[in-house]
Structures are given as structure tokens and as C-alpha cells.
User: Which sequence fits this backbone?
């Protein structure tokens, strides 16, 4: 007879971080390559038969996921240290599988280069996610302006370039909103189109400029990336390249916030300070001292005062640092007003911070954060990537131990966050609970 009480449970153990709060940080932390750049640069490998070597690639589950999706399309990839070589000479598929695309939104990027290179692409709609609906209307509108026939049926976006040669034709595209993903998708499509493409109201994020840098290294002609108007002259073919990914400005911002929330002094490097303008200025307004040295930034924090912030497209304050910054402001003196203006559902970390004793009230997409003198450790869950980072930061400042779950999100976008923080004095242990 089976003893039901001793039957092993079927539920798997859940990984979590035990963050012991109250420790000062000290020393220097290295910033990895930018996730959001790396993912789109990987998709750009579809544009050439030649070998593409990307350096400074972060170690993230999202990067492995993207390599898997490209692999399903016939792209060979090989990782060695922080370099990744990709070769799409055997590109055989125009349709990445649903389950892979569904697990990684950024894989929708593939539609642009697939269409440009093969004249046909069938990519499942990436769908919404926890932080908002995340439509791809602008991507589709732009591909149509370049001559593609696009239909969306049964959850799949099917695009084909009619006519002989199946080549896209350059055109003028005005984006209704400066979508990062749409801008990047269309830049890749336009790079192999016939003639010139102009993208107006383009996203100005540094990752867009990084993609332009790669396309130029591959023999492409791109002007104006980093401004609202980007011009791309299509080439008959692009060649291989050896290219270094920019440092991750969101990871750098998270590390600066780790120093601020623990009232510590820390050097964060390498960074490109212009990529962090709005973040540096808000940290300074909150009372931090930040000194650039040409390669990195040294931040020192003692008392933190309340500041108001509103997320905006670059060069405004990045939505990806809204949750981490809220953790800091939960410990500030005074009341801060934080408005999330990019995604409609990106305040889910509020409830978790409240579990740690934070005094936060929300109204629509605005949070009123009244700083408390001490957060207290509690079991919390990060509902998305940046919310998970916000929980780790709150844990660094809290009294006692904070158990952070939702690490499947954290590991998508942070390269060994706990290892980096432990090396400068934090006490974070990963275990299965
Ligand atoms: C990228 C980043 C993500 C960041 C976001 C905003 C990657 C892999 N991800 O996401 O980390 O949070 O930029 O900086 O680079 N929109 C529309 N219609 C569209 C497309 C977008 O209305 O067709 C809206 C979205 O709903 C959202 C806003 O535009 O409100 C910004 O989205 P977008 O810039 O497209 O973000 P992603 O490229 O998905």
C-alpha cells in the first residue's frame, strides 16, 4: 500500500535568492554587454551568408533562447567566452517555431531580415506579456511600406515580397510611436531592400544606434541612427563582421541603484555616460554623487531624498529602470511621484514592495512612494525581469532576509547579478526552496 504522506510531490523546487540586507557595498563591478542590443544583433546575422562575430555578449538565458531560434532557422552558432559566432549560410527556414517565439518576444525581430533575405517569412505573433499588450502594428505597417504583402491569420504573421527577385523596395515610413522593436525590424529589412528607406519618428535608443553600427560594419549604409530620422540605403548583399556590443545601460543603472540603496560607494564600469543621462541626473537629484572617469562611474550615496520621475522613450528616463528606481525611492526621505508612461501594466512590483513595508499608493499608472526609514525582508516574487531586479535591490537595503522568487525572469536579462553583487560585499545565496 502506498503511503500518500511520503509520496514525493510532483511540484519542482523553485529557485530563489536569499538576500541578506543591511550590508554596505564597496569596490568595482563590471557591466556586461547590452541584452537588448545583443538580441537584435544576433537577428542581423540572418542578413548575410558570411560569418558574424559578436563580442562582449552577456551570459543570459535570452541569448541562449535566441541562438536556439536562429538554430531552428538553419543558423549555426558557436560561443566561446564572451564571443558568439553566427553563420546563416545554411538559412533554410522562414518560419521559426511558435513555442520558441512565444518564450522570447525579441525573436519577432527575425521577420525583418528573413523577409529581406528570403522574400518570405512566417512568424507567430509574439503576444502580450505581463507588462502590457505590446502590439506589432508598427512593424507590420513598415514592412508593407517596403512592398511586403502581410497578413495575420491564426496568430501567425505571414509576409511575402511579390514579384521577380522577391526583393523589398525602399520607402518612407512614419512610425506612429517611436517603437524600438519596429525601428530595428525595419532597419534590418531596409538594409537589403532596393533603394533608400527613411524612417521618421524612429526610436533613438542606444541599441538602435548599435544595430546601425553593426549594419555599417557589414557593408550597409545607415545615417541618422540615434536621431528621429534614419536613412538606410539598401545594398544587394551584406558581408560578415566582427563587432563589439555596447555595455548594458540598464544593468549599469541597476548596479548604480544597488550602491544608492545601500548608501555605498561603488565604481560601475564600463559605461557610456550619455546612455545614462536621465538616470544619472535623477540619481544626482536624489542626492547621490556621481563621478565619471572616462570608462566608468563612481557613485557615492549617503542620504536619499524623494524625486519625481516619468518614464519616456530615450533620451528620457527608461521604463526598464522604473521598478529598480522605485525600490530606492521607497527608502528616500519624502514622497516621490513615479509615472509609468510607456507600458500600461508595469507597476506590479508595488504590491511586492508593500510586503516589505514600503508605503506606496497607486492611481492608474502613477505611484506615490512615501519613503520609509527601513524596509523589512519578506518572501517576494519578481513578476517580470526588471521587477525581479527591483526585489533584489530592496532586499539589499531591508532588515533581515528577503527571499526573491521569479528568477526565470531575472536570469533572462542579468548576467550573474548575485555573483557581481556578492563580489562587492552583498550576501545573496541562490537555493531551491
Ligand atoms: C524594447 C526593449 C524593452 C523596453 C522597450 C521600451 C528590446 C528587446 N526590448 O521593447 O526592454 O522596455 O523597448 O524602451 O529591445 N507600441 C505600439 N505599437 C507598436 C509597437 C509598440 O503602440 O506597433 C507601443 C508599446 O505598446 C509600448 C511602446 O510602444 O507602449 C514601446 O514599445 P517598443 O519600443 O516597441 O518596445 P519593444 O521594442 O517591445
Assistant:
Amino acid at each position: 500500500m502506498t503511503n500518500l504522506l511520503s509520496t514525493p510531490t510532483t511540484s519542482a523546487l523553485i529557485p530563489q535568492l536569499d538576500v541578506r540586507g543591511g550590508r554596505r557595498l564597496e569596490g568595482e563591478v563590471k557591466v556586461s554587454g547590452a541584452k537588448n542590443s545583443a538580441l537584435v544583433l544576433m537577428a542581423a546575422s540572418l542578413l548575410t551568408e558570411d560569418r558574424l562575430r559578436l563580442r562582449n555578449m552577456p551570459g543570459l538565458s535570452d541569448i541562449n533562447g535566441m541562438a536556439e531560434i536562429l538554430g531552428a532557422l538553419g543558423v549555426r552558432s558557436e560561443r566561446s567566452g564572451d564571443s558568439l559566432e553566427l553563420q546563416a549560410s545554411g538559412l533554410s527556414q522562414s518560419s521559426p517555431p511558435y513555442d520558441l517565439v512565444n518564450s522570447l518576444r525579441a525573436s519577432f525581430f527575425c521577420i525583418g531580415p528573413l523577409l529581406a533575405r528570403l522574400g518570405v517569412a512566417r512568424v507567430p505573433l509574439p503576444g502580450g506579456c505581463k507588462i502590457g499588450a505590446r502590439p506589432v502594428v508598427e512593424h507590420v505597417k513598415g514592412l508593407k511600406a517596403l512592398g511586403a504583402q502581410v497578413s495575420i491569420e491564426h496568430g501567425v504573421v505571414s509576409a511575402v515580397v511579390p514579384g521577380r527577385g522577391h526583393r523589398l523596395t525602399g520607402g518612407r515610413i512614419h512610425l506612429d510611436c517611436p517603437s524600438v522593436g519596429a525601428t530595428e525590424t525595419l532597419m534590418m529589412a531596409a538594409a537589403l531592400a532596393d533603394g533608400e528607406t527613411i524612417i521618421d519618428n524612429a526610436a533613438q535608443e542606444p541599441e538602435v544606434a548599435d544595430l546601425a553600427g553593426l549594419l555599417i560594419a557589414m557593408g550597409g549604409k545607415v545615417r541618422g541612427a540615434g536621431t528621429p530620422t534614419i536613412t538606410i540605403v539598401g545594398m544587394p548583399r551584406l558581408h560578415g563582421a566582427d563587432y563589439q556590443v555596447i555595455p548594458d545601460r540598464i544593468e549599469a543603472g541597476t548596479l548604480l541603484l544597488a550602491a544608492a540603496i545601500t548608501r555605498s560607494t561603488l565604481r560601475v564600469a564600463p559605461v557610456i555616460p550619455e546612455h545614462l543621462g536621465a538616470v544619472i541626473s535623477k540619481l544626482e537629484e536624489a542626492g547621490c554623487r556621481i563621478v565619471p572617469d572616462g570608462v566608468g562611474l563612481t557613485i557615492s550615496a549617503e542620504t536619499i531624498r524623494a524625486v519625481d520621475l516619468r518614464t519616456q522613450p530615450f533620451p528620457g528616463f527608461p521604463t526598464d529602470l522604473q521598478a529598480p528606481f522605485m525600490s530606492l525611492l521607497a527608502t528616500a526621505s519624502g514622497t516621490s511621484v513615479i509615472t509609468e508612461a510607456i507600458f500600461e501594466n508595469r507597476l506590479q512590483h508595488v504590491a511586492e514592495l508593500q510586503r516589505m513595508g514600503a508605503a506606496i499608493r497607486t492611481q492608474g499608472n502613477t505611484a506615490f512612494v512615501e519613503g520609509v526609514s527601513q524596509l523589512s525582508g519578506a518572501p517576494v516574487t519578481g513578476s517580470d525581469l526588471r521587477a525581479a531586479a527591483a526585489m533584489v535591490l530592496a532586499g539589499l537595503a531591508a532588515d533581515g532576509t528577503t527571499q526573491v522568487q521569479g528568477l526565470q525572469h531575472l536570469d533572462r536579462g542579468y548576467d550573474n547579478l548575485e555573483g557581481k553583487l556578492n563580489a562587492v560585499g552583498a550576501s545573496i545565496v541562490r537555493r531551491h526552496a
In short: Residues 36, 39, 106, 132, 134-139, 177, 179-182, 203, 207, 319-320, 342-343 surround uridine-diphosphate-N-acetylglucosamine (CB under 6 Å). The chain has two domains: 15-32+247-432, 35-244. The domain at 15-32+247-432 is CATH 3.65.10.10 (UDP-n-acetylglucosamine1-carboxyvinyl-transferase; Chain). The chain is about 30% helix and 25% strand.
